[in-house]
Amino acid sequence: MRTTHRKAQEVAERDQKLVRVALDMICRDGFHNLTLGKLAEEAGYSKGTVYNHFTCREDLLIELSAESARQQLRYFQAIADLPWDGVRSMYGMTLAYMRHAEVAPVLFECSLTARTDAVCEVASEQRLKRRDLIEAQMTQVVGYAVERSVAEGAFSNDDVEPGVAVDALRAYILGYAAMHLLSRRFLWAGEEGLDARLKVMTSMVSGLGWTRLGVEEVVKLHQVVADVVDSVAAQHAPDSHPE
After folding, report:
1. How far apart are CA 60 and CA 114, in angstroms?
2. Could you say which DSSP state residue 157 is in?
3. 228 CB neighbour count, 10 Å cutoff
């Protein structure tokens, strides 16, 4: 039994190492230059060993998107543990989602690409199920914040239900992230664009039905969330990973 447990742990550790090395390679050379053969050479394993973990490059991409989801889940859980009411937790998780695109751009970009049918149709069912499980946990954490905001009377929209409003909010964040990833020179990029980003985000959240918070309070929430995200990211980032 101990031998079986030890082998399973070794496989998991090797899996994590391959993900870390792949991230380093993508940061350096771009995803289009990454192959499983190059990954094996960089990580110091045989091709057979790497293929035992990832049957194709799409499998690796799914695992990178799962790692992105794991990081986001940690942020959301940390925010859920703060002494905030439901609506402030909603604002906080929205800010954390946006912050994730800034501190882990490669992971975030991989998570976007890994949602496409072209990737999902090729990747193994096992990898997809593992990612789906993590994303389901994220949904639970966000769902709890939404339920609290509704119970506390902080959501009111006669046209759409809270779940639809959350999906619309996520679409906005993905749009922001995509622009951020395409170019750091776009209108809201950098610290100089922070004021505009927060105002637009507040308008989106409140426009969808949640209570509107004042600018000064949103700025304070942003600082708390940035500290949470940066702290959690630093705790879980390997020393070799440049993001």
Report:
1. 10
2. -
3. 21
Residue 187 is predicted with a pLDDT of: 52
Neighbours of 63 (CB within 10 A): 24
* Helix count and strand count (H, E) for the chain: 11, 0
At 31-61, the pLDDT tens digits run 888 999 999 999 999 999 999 999 999 999 9
Helix axes of 57-80 and 105-113: crossing angle, nearest 10 degrees = 120
- The residue count of the chain comes to 243
Query: Which band of pLDDT confidence, cut at 50, 70 and 90, is reported for residue 183?
Result: low
Query: What does the block give as tokens for 14?
Result: 């090797």
Q: With a threshold of 0.85, does the pTM exceed it? A: yes
- Euclidean distance between CA atoms 6 and 12, whole angstroms: 10
Q: Classify each residue of 185-215 as buried b or exposed e, where b means 16 or more C-beta atoms within 10 Å of its C-beta.
A: eeebbeeeeeeebbeebbebbeebbbbebee
pLDDT digits (tens, 9 = 90+) for 200-239: 899 999 999 999 999 999 999 999 999 999 998 888 665 5
- 102 with 179: CB under 8 angstroms? no
The CA-based angle 20-66-18, given to 5 degrees, is 25
Q: Taking each helix axis as running N to C, give the angle between helix 105-113 and helix 2-29, from 0 to 180 degrees, rounded to the nearest 10.
A: 100
At 172, the amino acid letter reads: Y
Query: What's the rounded Cα separation, in Å, for the pair 12 and 14?
Result: 5
